[in-house]
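Hello Y.,

Per our agreement to keep a running log of every chain we model this quarter, I'm adding this entry. I've kept the format consistent with earlier entries: sequence first, then predicted structure.
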Amino acid sequence: MNIDSIQVDHFEIPLPTVLSDSTHGEIRQFGVVMVRVRMAGGAEGLGYTYVVGKTGGAAIAALIEKDLAPMLVRSDPRRVEQLWGRMWWRLHYVGRGGIAVFAISAVDIALWDLKAKFAGEPLWRLLGGHSGKARVYAGGIDLGFSLDELAERTRQNLERGFRAIKMKVGRERLAEDVERVAAMRELLGPEIPLLVDANMRWSVEQAIRASRAFAEHDVYWLEEPTIPDDIEGHARIARDGAIPIAAGGVSFPEPDLSNLGGVTAWMKVAHLAEAYNLPVTSHGVHDLHVHLLAAVPNASLLEAHGFGLEAFILHPLDIVEGVVTAPERAGHGIEFDWDALEQHRAAR
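Predicted structure for the entry above:
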């Protein structure tokens, strides 16, 4: 029952449409690092993480190949908590965040996929099996879109079955953001939740002003209003603003399993949030996060955003009236078209 080998693959996935937000500027591609943990008998667990553009992808892949994989080979993959701790302390001196935790995340996801396959259960049921479903919203990266383009993309998402929409804010003038939010509210009507994401653009005072301005248009939450390091600032925005905050904490804790330590760390955040009577949401990689939100009792909305990977996934999630059902396949159930991905392998 020990790990026989670990394969690491690094791909650079081009986007069909150039996207943009207030901090990354134009986004033309995402980097994806994939990990396959293999047993001698052929069983395999798959995990992955992503980066914006090209930055950091090669470093994450190298960390896994050179520092984590040699340590994990011949270990029992079912002892996920033990292996997570070993990875953490292996990278502790150079990590405790950043690319080190991205690397741990990809491996941890693969270990949980393998563990669920051993159990013959879908991951969401192994992790708690609360509902098997999740409410979902369309997460756009659309700050550079014109109002007409934003409206057209929104209509397409509604036709696909989404019943909640997120848009980017953080343009040069707050008045521009307010105008766009007002137009979106008019398009969506009063019943469909509208979420906004500033991608850490503002100071605390700017975020408070924006929050108060958006409240008139019934915004569901304001995401990442300022830099994540400013914990006291987030508390001020939540206190003095007018709408709930989604980020690492505050009103809607928003852990991302692909960059905070995998399934192991995400579930701990979700349970901690539950202890404080807070709903938990997700950030991207919806084909993985659907299992986690479907497993816990305090689930909020699932962000649907695959960072270009959706074109290579063999069994995409079905969205029906704003709800997705977690797969029943053993593990997380994600299978890729590896031949198609091969065309986008990153140069070494």
